[in-house]
């Protein structure tokens, strides 16, 4: 209650509002996204006192996630990797004139997922952090393998295409210097590739530039127009709300535990939520996936924000950054001479509790801010495509160059963008590629660390009860989707 008392002062409410607004604005730009939004806005807060700075970051934190989803829904170019799963059905809804409803579904799902997760963090932050201690190299490897096969088999009608996409992602993931042996892999002797290919480069190339190339390829075809619903109600009908509610709840269930497991962010639970909704949809008399299924937006959005909420708990209670955004937040804490962990709640309670209270306030501010503006965002669909996608191409280049200042990355974006176009051209799913890129390094490192610690004994990879549960779930998923 004291935390709310501090967070609800007029000046701190202003910082939350500005953070939400700026986070959303930066998050919508292809190649930037929520993590870059926090990084870019970090210097802005140096002149503020720590409490005000982190209250502003609470708005940026969730605002960036919503910005990621906005462009994913409207023009199929996610601001960040966490919005990839949302783009599949969300963009289809936008093409059918239901962009405001898709944005409203995303906003409400983000609110519900974040609200549940943040409430859990307030009461159970130490318990949540303890859960992560049960995961060792074998468990992380099993988790990554489960995510690989579940995604490859769930998001495509042809498992072979999903596996091809996964292999492309894994190949991109292993470019660079091997961290254990120091061997160069797929670098062709180019020094700029020694550190590997940035996830930002791959995300921008495959998701944004690949979509631009696809639109350019289809330039002779009639331009799809947003239907009458593009300027319609920014809220959901009772029927749509009832349709989305189970997916919101299931997505939240996926997202909450993943926030305390360092697997790189919300990509895994969002894809798992999407795959679950897709499998459930196949059992219906009239499947909606591929036609703009509202559950395909609701599940991933709730999962993404639920993960972000509990990730904040893991950061505060244990000092464990479980995503790129949380890692930047950790750097922000250290900038102010603070070290997240169990003692933070005792030594800096005057900072922690206003920050947690501002997370609740930030969620409410984002809901109030974005629901009425959903029709306004949807009007982006009325911009002529050649202007819109020219701007997207420009922001792709600016976003990538701003993060690395390397011309090599611009050339990589162009080359991988062609791969992204070919994937779309031949109906190969994108999700397995992205999950391979994101979790490939985790899977490889976990497997090799497990084998090194056991002297090369393979049985270490399935020696715990958690690994048996994950492999059992993997077998069940393959049996259902086969």
UniProtKB/TrEMBL annotation:
Keywords tagged on the record: Membrane, Transmembrane, Transmembrane helix
List, for all copies, the residue spans of the domain called DUF112. 13-435
Instruction: From the record, give the transmembrane residue ranges.
Output: 12-32, 38-62, 102-125, 131-151, 158-177, 197-217, 314-333, 353-377, 398-423, 429-447, 459-480
Point out the signal peptide segment.
none
InterPro entries on file? DUF112_TM
Instruction: Return any one Pfam family short name.
Output: TctA
Q: What is this protein called?
A: Tripartite tricarboxylate transporter permease
Please give the organism. Citricoccus nitrophenolicus
Mind giving the lineage of the organism this protein is from? Bacteria, Bacillati, Actinomycetota, Actinomycetes, Micrococcales
């Amino acid at each position: 209650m004291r935390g709310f008392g501090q967070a609800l002062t007029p000046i701190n409410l202003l910082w939350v509002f500005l953070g939400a607004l700026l986070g959303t604005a930066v998050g919508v730009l292809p190649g930037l996204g929520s993590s870059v939004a926090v990084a870019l806005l970090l210097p802005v807060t140096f002149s503020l006192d720590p409490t005000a700075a982190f209250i502003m970051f609470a708005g940026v934190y969730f605002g960036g996630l919503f910005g990621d989803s906005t462009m994913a829904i409207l023009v199929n170019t996610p601001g960040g990797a966490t919005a990839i799963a949302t783009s599949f059905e969300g963009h289809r809804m936008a093409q059918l004139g239901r962009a405001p409803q898709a944005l409203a579904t995303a906003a409400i799902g983000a609110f519900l997922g974040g609200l549940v997760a943040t409430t859990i963090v307030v009461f159970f932050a130490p318990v949540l952090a303890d859960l992560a201690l049960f995961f060792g190299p074998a468990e992380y490897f099993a988790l990554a393998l489960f995510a690989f096969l579940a995604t490859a088999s769930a998001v495509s009608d042809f498992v072979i295409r999903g596996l091809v996409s996964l292999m492309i992602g894994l190949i991109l993931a292993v470019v660079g210097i091997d961290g254990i042996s120091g061997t160069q892999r797929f670098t062709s002797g180019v020094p700029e590739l020694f550190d590997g290919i940035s996830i930002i480069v791959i995300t921008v190339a495959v998701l944004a530039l690949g979509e631009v190339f696809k639109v350019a390829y289809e330039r002779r075809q009639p331009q799809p127009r947003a239907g009458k619903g593009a300027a319609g109600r920014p809220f959901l009908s009772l029927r749509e709300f009832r349709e989305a509610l189970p997916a919101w709840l299931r997505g939240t269930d996926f997202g909450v535990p993943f926030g305390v497991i360092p697997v790189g962010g919300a990509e895994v639970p969002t894809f798992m939520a999407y795959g679950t909704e897709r499998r459930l949809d196949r059992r219906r008399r009239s499947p909606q996936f591929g036609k703009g299924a509202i559950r395909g937006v609701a599940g991933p959005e709730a999962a993404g924000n639920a993960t972000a909420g509990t990730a904040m708990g893991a950061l505060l209670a244990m000092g464990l950054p479980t995503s790129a955004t949380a890692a930047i937040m950790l750097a922000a804490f250290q900038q102010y001479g603070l070290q997240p962990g169990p003692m933070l709640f005792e030594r800096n309670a005057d900072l922690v509790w206003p920050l947690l209270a501002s997370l609740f306030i930030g969620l409410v501010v984002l809901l109030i801010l974005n629901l009425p503006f959903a029709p306004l965002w949807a009007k982006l669909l009325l911009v002529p495509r050649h202007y819109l996608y020219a701007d997207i191409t420009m922001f792709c280049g600016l976003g990538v160059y701003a993060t690395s200042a390397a011309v090599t990355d611009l050339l990589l974006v162009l080359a991988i963008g062609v791969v992204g176009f070919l994937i779309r051209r031949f109906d190969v799913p994108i999700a397995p590629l992205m999950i391979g890129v994101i979790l490939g390094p985790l899977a490889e490192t976990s497997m090799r660390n497990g084998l090194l610690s056991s002297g090369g004994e393979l049985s270490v990879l399935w020696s715990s009860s958690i690994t048996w549960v994950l492999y059992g779930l993997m077998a069940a998923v393959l049996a259902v989707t086969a």
